[in-house]
Amino acid sequence: KNEVEQSPQNLTAQEGEFITINCSYSVGISALHWLQQHPGGGIVSLFMLSSGKKKHGRLIATINIQEKHSSLHITASHPRDSAVYICAVRAGGTSYGKLTFGQGTILTVHP
Amino acid sequence: GAGVSQSPSNKVTEKGKDVELRCDPISGHTALYWYRQSLGQGLEFLIYFQGNSAPDKSGLPSDRFSAERTGGSVSTLTIQRTQQEDSAVYLCASSLFAGEYNEQFFGPGTRLTVL
User: Fold this and answer.
1) HEC string for B42-68
2) B105 touches chain A (CB under 8 A)
3) In this complex, do A98 and B45 lie within 8 Å of one another by their Cβ atoms?
4) Which residue, A111, A94, A106, A80, is CA-closest to A25?
5) What's the whole-number average pLDDT of chain B?
6) Strand, coil or helix: what is B21?
7) Whole-angstrom distance, CA of residue B105 vs CA of residue B3
8) How many angstroms separate the CA atoms of B76 and B70, rounded?
9) CB proximity list for B96: less than 8 A, separation 6 or greater
10) Which residues, other chains included, contact B71 with Cβ-Cβ below 8 Å and sequence gap of 6+?
11) CA torsion, points A79, A81, A83, A89, in degrees to nearest 10?
């Protein structure tokens, strides 16, 4: 079993829909990252969080440390949100630089 | 520079040859990371550097892989005697420090194809 599991693996939505991508992890962590990868490969860091909730524009990320679970929400989805969304964790007690990644969620938003 | 840059953007090589991949981090960033993304697979940590400390090499898949960072800035990932399973996109990232609260900024990657 992977240390970081994302669901769903694939997600198709209509423009305007509310989207949720989930990430569960099995190890104690010090931080969790949400990344976005567009076709063509460029990766952008969306959020980095260790507790609570963060919001940036239409994106919201939450984390529940006790349940070892994080969610990424997209409100009023748009075709330009189509990308791969990747959850990554920094395990507590390991070297600060080492991230462990989920397998990614492929999101397609249709107009 | 404005962001992390990597070169070359694409590299095609023959099995058994050595390759060098280069990463220029954001100026002033003390931490530098190398990752690999194989076709159909997720991202995989390879190695990271923090300042003058010994690098964390725990993700390197074999002794054919090595990396160095000269002068605390540019880094080179070297793969010796390449194999077809080395084909992947190699991504570099940098952050101000390696602490857990530091955002990582990714380069565009180098797509390596081993024939």
Assistant:
1) CEEEEEEEECCCCCECCCCCCCCEEEE
2) yes
3) yes
4) A94
5) 91
6) strand
7) 8
8) 8
9) B28, B29, B30, B31, B102
10) none
11) -160
Tokens of B110: 């180098």
Contacts with A100 from chain B: Cβ below 8 Å: 45
Name beta bridge partners: B50: B31
Write the CA distances from A9 to A42, A103, B42, integer angstroms.
19, 8, 12
> If pLDDT is split at 50, 70 and 90, which confidence band does A52 have?
very high
Tokens linked to A100: 């462990």
What's the distance, CA B113 to chain centroid? 15
Q: B24-59 pLDDT, tens per residue? A: 999 989 899 999 999 877 899 999 998 888 888 989
List CB contacts of B30: < 8 A, sequence separation 6 or more: B50, B51, B72, B96, B97, B98
Q: Write out chain A residues lying below 8 Å of B50, CB-based.
A: 96-97
